[in-house]
From TrEMBL:
Keyword Hydrolase attributed: yes
Keywords attached to this entry: Hydrolase
Alphabetical list of InterPro entries matching this protein: Beta-lactam-related, Beta-lactam/transpept-like, Diverse_Enzym_Activities
Keyword Hydrolase: yes
Protein name: Beta-lactamase family protein
Highest rank taxon of the organism: Bacteria
Source organism of the structure: Streptomyces endophytica
Amino acid sequence: MEDSTDRIKQLVADGVRDKVYPGAVWATGNATGIKARGTAGVLDPAEPDIPMRPDTVFDVASLTKILAVWSTVGALWEDGSFPLDEPLDTFWPEATGRPLGQVTARHLLTHTAGVPLRAQLKNLYGTDPAAIRAGVLHEALHRPPGEAVEYTDRAALILGYLAEHLSGRRLDQLAHTHIWQPLGMAHTRFGPLLPELTVRCAPTELDEDTGRHLKGTAHDFSARLLGGVCGIAGTFSVLDDLARFLRYMLDPTTAPAAPGFGPSWVEESLSVQTGTLEPVRGLFWHPAPGTDPADRTYVHYGFTGTGMWISPKRGTWAVLLTNKLYYTRDREPLTRIRNAFRSVVFN
C-alpha cells in the first residue's frame, strides 16, 4: 500500500509539473473509509501561494449525472415509482405521442436511447427554461432506441426532468433530501455557490464574457442556462463527500441514515446492461478503460477534470479531482493520468 501511495503522489505531482492541471485532490479507500489521500499543486495559478487543500470545492461537472440523477432515479426505482423498461409514453404525458415516447429509462441510462448527441439548448430552443424543456422532450430521435451506445448529455437532462415529474420536486431538492443529507454530504450542492464556499472553489475555464476564470458558477453552459440546476451538470462537491457516497455504495451500513437507493440499484448499475453493443455500459457508470468488464471496476468522469471509480469485486473506490479545464480542453494528458491512476489503485 505504501508503494502504491508513493506512486500515486508522484503521478499526481507530475500532472501539476506538466501543467495538466493547476492542482489535484485524490483519495483511495474501501467500505471502512479513506486509506490514502493527498493533494498537489495550487488552487489558482493566479495566486501561487494558496495550495490545493483536502476541502477544496470542485465543480464536478458530469459527476452530477451520478450524484444527482443516477442516485435519485435509483431511489425512485427502489420505491417502485420509476419503471426502467416501460416506454416513457405509457406513464409520462409529456412524452405521449412524441418520438421520445418509445424510449425507456434503461435506454437513457445506458446511452442507447437514440436522442440527439449534442445539447445545443440555446441554439435550438432559446433561453426560456420551459421552452427548453418542451424542445428537449419533443425532439426527434437521432436513431432508433437500442441500436447503438452513444454518450449524450441529453440522457441525464431527460432523466432529471422525469425524476422531477414523478416526485413532484425539483432535482436539487430531490437529491438533497433523498441522497446528500442522509449520507452526510454537507458540502455537496448545485451552484451558484455562496461566497463562503466560492473562496474554497477550484476555478475552471476562462469566461470570455467576464475575462475571469469561472469559480463557484458551473462551467457547463447548459447548467448555467437552466439556472444552475439540471441533470447534465452543475453540482459542486468535496473529496470527503464523494468518499461518503462511494463507501455507502460498497457497504450501506456506513451511512448515518439510509438514502433512497440501496444495494439492488448498485448491483443493477455496476453490471453490463448493453448486451453485445459496444462500448459496454452499466447504468450511467461504465467499465474503466483498460479493464475487463468482468472485473467490475466502474468509473464516471466530469469534463472539468474530475473522476470517481468503484469496484464492488475488489471492495475499493477512488477519487481524483482536478481543475484541468483551467488550462485546456485537450483531454489526452488527463486521460493518461486517469488511466495510470486507475491502474495503480486497482492493480
